[in-house]
Amino acid sequence: MKSGFTRLPVRHLGDISGLLQPTCVLPERVTLDNPAIDVMTDFRRVTAYIATPYDPIVAAEERMQRRKVRLLFVMDETDHLVGLITSTDLKSEKPMQIVHSRGIRRDEILVGDIMTPAAALEAVAFEDVASARVGHVLETLKASGRQHALVVESVDGKPFVRGLLSLSRLSRQLGVNLVTTEVARTFAEIEARLAHA
Predict the structure, then answer these.
(1) Which residues lie below 8 Å from residue 165, measured CB to CB, with a gap of 6+?
(2) Which of 7, 13, 36, 176 is deepest in the core (most CB within 10 A)?
(3) Torsions phi, psi of 163, nearest 5?
(4) How far is residue 54's CA from residue 124's CA, in Å, rounded to a whole number?
């Protein structure tokens, strides 16, 4: 039976560069009055990279470098979020403390040994972010004293991570380039530079 359709043109592929990845294109510069959504990494538009608690931290570090990210979500074997690990965690004293306390090598440390557990993570609702401004995001991160905040959306009554608010991304978009992992000092510098802008 004829369908009335014709086949699509088919080509033989030569050298393939890879797969296109979803992208979350955010404004390069924002002000405190921009919509908060302008500084949120939206996982409906960009891939969230993951690790497992049993991955060696050296593998997590390599994954971050290869993917050009500073954070991995730690998922268990049932795909539940059990924590997150950041490049700051990897560069902190935690790995060396474990090396000394357990008498192991750094390459034997697992992600689960130094990750921030899910129970310790703070989150804001996507609905609140959708109606907020960048200034609200800055105050939220400042009040928590953290580099990141998860954005959670409820789907069929269950919470899912929809996005991420990041202090480093926020400072770049505000035009305040900071190279520090000291959160309190970071906020003080952001406020001082914004006051003089």
Answers:
(1) 36, 39, 40, 41, 124, 129, 137, 140, 141, 148, 149, 150, 151
(2) 36
(3) -160, -175
(4) 28
Q: Can you count the helices (H) and strands (E) in the chain?
A: 8, 8
Record: fold of 36-196: CBS-domain (3.10.580)
Residue with tokens 């905040």: 149
Half-sphere exposure (CA, 13 Å, Cβ side) for 175?
A: 10
Q: Which element (helix H / strand E) includes 192?
A: helix 183-196
Q: Which 3 state secondary structure label does DSSP give 140?
A: helix
In order, the DSSP letters of 35-68 are: BGGGGEEETTTSPPPEE-TTSBHHHHHHHHHHHT
Which 8-state DSSP code applies to residue 110? Answer: B
> Which residue in 71, 24, 67 sits closest to 45, CA to CA?
24
Interacting residues of 13 by C-beta distance below 8 A, sequence separation 6+: none
Lowest mean pLDDT among 26-30, 66-70, 141-145: 141-145
Give me the pLDDT at residue 5, please.
Answer: 85
Identify the CA nearest to 60 among candidates 23, 114, 96: 114
Judge whether 80 and 72 are in contact, CB under 8 Å: no
